[in-house]
Design brief:
By secondary structure, the chain is of the alpha+beta class. It is 63% helix and 14% strand. Helix 7 crosses helix 9. The longest helix is centred in the middle third of the chain and has 30 residues.
């Protein structure tokens, strides 16, 4: 009863987030995410076929609910008679620990809040930060990011990773192109057993996601608190995307890709290339050149050499953009600098 009522409150807050921010997605992405949101809400497996009528009715009902919640404020979280601000993640998790649950409430890209509640799978300590892994979720929002770093804690959501991978698999299966995505999926037997393949790929990519979040923590230390203040102050959506892309490259050339290359983790390197957004391809075409060369030759030294150049480049770009902000450069000027800083 306790878990059920807590799930309802957290889901209510997730619904408020969706009411305010679900429109941020393009129509194609929105419809795909809503279909998978319907699958999760109704408890269907990934192999179950969803009828257009059922999904359409669910979407209509959910959008009607959002219309009612658009102007509402988040509800406090109540546990054992104590009330918590929904963003007080540490205090909430301290109270949830005896119940085997994990909660997260934080702010993501473009200042969009994210909440989730799920079963605690594992918690472990690394140096000066903690990794908390959640399994099955009972409350989530539409976006449902697979990972989030809050101060010195990394929250990894296995169910969200699994769902994200399934969306990528479905997207690739529509066209079945000979590309990085297809190469990554070829390491898993999606033809024979979708669920087993998703489980295996989730375990592998969880490691990659953890590496990226570690990179985020380390680069945040290098850049200092001014970077976070900088991001919060940005009003231009394009500049926000450019800054986050540059910071991601900085994190990934520091920890993620060096680890994957050292481990010869071919599946994850293919998947990393597959997830390069158009903006990232524009900013870093040299990575794709190095990736293609590596794919053709299986020569990991190609990637290692690129990483040396890439790490210095993106470290310098992030530091210079931050310095421009501290020197009161206008946003269009910083944006132009980043646009011209491709590698």
């Amino acid at each position: 009863m306790f878990t059920e009522s807590l799930c309802e409150v957290v889901q209510h807050n997730c619904n408020i987030v969706d009411a305010k921010h679900a429109g941020n997605f393009t129509l194609c992405i929105y419809l795909m995410k809503m279909r998978e949101y319907c699958r999760w809400d109704k408890g269907y497996s990934y192999t179950d076929l969803l009828s257009k009528e059922e999904v359409g009715e669910w979407v209509t009902q959910r959008e009607s609910l959002w219309d009612e919640l658009d102007q509402q404020s988040f509800t406090p979280i109540e546990i054992n008679g104590m009330r918590f601000d929904p963003f007080d993640t540490d205090a909430i998790n301290a109270s949830l620990q005896p119940h085997g649950l994990v909660y997260s409430g934080g702010i993501g890209a473009r200042s969009v809040p994210h909440f989730f509640l799920g079963k605690l799978d594992e918690a472990k300590k690394f140096d000066d930060y903690q990794v908390v892994i959640a399994a099955e979720e009972c409350a989530r929002d539409l976006s449902s990011p697979p990972a989030m770093t809050l101060q010195n804690k990394i929250f990894i959501r296995k169910e969200s990773i699994r769902r994200m991978l399934w969306e990528k698999v479905q997207e690739w299966q529509w066209h079945k192109l000979e590309n990085a995505a297809g190469r990554a999926f070829s390491y898993y037997d999606f033809k024979q057993d979708v669920n087993a393949a998703l489980d295996n790929m989730t375990d592998v990519e969880l490691h990659s996601i953890l590496l990226h979040e570690r990179g985020e923590i380390e680069t945040a230390k290098h850049l200092g608190k001014g970077w976070k203040t900088f991001l919060v102050s940005v009003s231009s959506a394009r500049l926000d995307l450019l800054l986050r892309a540059a910071k991601d490259f900085y994190a990934d050339t520091l920890i993620t890709l060096p680890e994957l290359v050292q481990q010869h983790n071919q599946a994850s390197i293919h998947f990393y290339a597959a997830n390069m957004s158009p903006l990232r391809k524009q900013l870093c075409p040299s990575f794709l050149q190095a990736y293609n060369h590596w794919h053709e030759t299986n020569d990991f030294s190609v990637l290692s050499h690129w990483l040396e150049e890439g790490h210095k480049h993106w470290s310098d770009v992030c530091r210079h953009a931050l310095q421009m902000h501290m020197d009161d450069s206008c946003e269009p000027e910083i944006e132009q600098y980043l646009e011209n800083s491709s590698l």
